[in-house]
Amino acid sequence: xxxxxxxxxxxxGITNAENTFYVDAADNAGVYQIKAWVSPKGQNDWxxxxxxxxxxxxxxxxxxTLKNISGLTEGAHDLKVTVTDYYGNSATxxxxxxxxxxxxxxxxLTAIGKPGGIKLHFTSESDDVTWYxxxxxxxxxxxxxxxxxxxxxxxxxDLSSKIGTSYSYRIKAHDAAGNSSGYSGIKTAAALxxxxxxxxxx
Length: 202
Description:
By secondary structure, the chain is mainly β. Helix content is 0%, strand content 52%. A five-stranded mixed β-sheet has the order 2-8-7-4-5, with no helix packed on it. Strands 12-11-14-15 form a four-stranded antiparallel β-sheet, with no helix packed on it.
């Protein structure tokens, strides 16, 4: 009898339509076909999501996305996967996921020169942001060359070896489903010299 040996829903169950689902199946006599369907949760309104037909081998993998399924709306969905062999035997497994195609709001960004570095602060109006990607460059350069990925909403960029050099920054917000905002406006600042020590002579 065939068996579904792996069912991978992207994003730990929260996904957009572009992400890839994976279904693995096995049968000693050969896997004939894997099929997947999706439905709004609890409605049994199944739409075919993907099909993979084997060539007689004992293992088969189906990969699919949701981007070409018409009428699929955001929210909770059921997933049904069925594998069959060449003798008409089958096995079925169910899963569930949340479809989210809405990108986060573009975050605001501030960049303030501090002694030894630049303090960045950024926030998005969206409540589902899980991380940010900061692009930065020396302001004189043409392209943004570097990226920092961070979950917090602030970052201190240590530039103690680049005091006075102007740096430019922009940032994107990302959610758990894999959606990304647009870039923020570009902000520019330079690290300041450390405050000199004050010696008090009695």
